[in-house]
What does this fold into?
Amino acid sequence: MRELYEKMINEAMTAQRADVEMVKAKRGQKFVLADTKPYVDAVRKMTAIGDQSRAVIDLHKNSVISHAEVLQSLTTTVRPEDDPFVEHYQTPVVLEILKSQDEAFAKSVDAFTEAIAAAEARIGLEAVRRYGGFYGPTCVVDFALIPGSTSNVVNRVLQKTDIPVEHKQAILAAKSWGMNTSYGFGDTFAHALEEGATPGEATAKEVEIMQRIYRNPIEAQAELMDAAGMTSFDARKYMSEYRRRMEPTVRAAVDDGVHYANILTVPAYSVGDVAHHIAQSTFNMCKDDVVMAIIEAVTEVMESSLKNSLDAYKSYWDVLSLATGASAAATEYILELDALNAPMVVDLLTKRFHNYVLAYPARGAAAELHNCDFMDMIYRGWKLIDKARKGRNGADETLTPMVGKYPVDLSPIHANEVLMNPQWYAYPACAITVRFSALMRLADYPCLLTSEPVTATMMTNVIALEKATPAAPVRACKNCATTSLVDQRQHYCQWKEAV
It folds into this structure.
């Protein structure tokens, strides 16, 4: 298994470094799609070994390659306002391919859309709760089933839909790691209400859009982009050409016995580095030396920690757990260098959210999404660091958090010249909030800390070994930071009830 673990680490870190190195080289400059070539080249080198399904690896590789080439045929750059959407065009296409190839699945999707209408009371209740901030900060597009998320609502409807369970799992996956359109639950309801509709009228509009994204996902996504003013490229041409390129890959995955849930997710979560993580918004954000240094240091901690345990792993899941745990511990440790910690930040951002609801009642459905990701990450890191500090006690030894049985190497943080010299970036005698302030920028955009290219690459490797088991959404408690520390919303989660 050592060969597999090493492959997972090398492929994941090559993807991460392709992003980080390009961002460092181009930060503060103009983004062009040619800048994404190092990431695409890294993905091209992904392989299937041993018992891994080549069809799963191809879903990842061919989606990234198709995405990059189609985009470059349509435009030379993507506006910051449009870059979050680039990973939302793939699942609608794959969903329509599966529906066209499998009549039984198409009938199940139709039955689900009818069930949405039958669940009008639940749709209305959940939309009201999201509008009013009832659940606190939440991820409207979640990789699990937290309260207020689209996947949570979809799961509730699916529980009462009489279709095969494997079809339920596929439909659920399409709105988690799979991103079936850019729509986030509750957005139509909130805007309708603010524009003068009654709650009943707003609920009817919400039901309609939720049905549309499953009945006609490609056209629904195109219409959403029209409404959003997406002008970087022609969304309809993109999806048409992406479908032409990906149809054989999807068919091969079906023939290989890959679960539809995985076919719907892998092509979407793999493409975000092309014109989203490597993008103008990232180049702009990383003009700040401290922001850039944090991303670099966390990357170094991840890679060092992963490679140090290469001969110790017991499972490929351990590799993924250490990757995310190491980045969580590293980010929390940087926060603690400024004498702050996760409980303080979770308290701050959760309180801010409740006030944000008052200030912006028609806020975007995804407004606090990445704040949640950031809080969950540092909360996990805080628990790891706290345990390590208590274990070390007063001893004069290196602080070494443990993710299970695997140590996290924090030394790259101390080796980072920028992070160790905050006085270069503020009034020198008072430079006690420099690292924290940079982390607050990253709280809105933690994708290279959590890290998405690493988790996407590793998850594809795992799914290639467990192709018949739906990987998304995660059927486990996320230990949400705000749930654990502020808002007692455990009763409203759906992780145990996932179809």
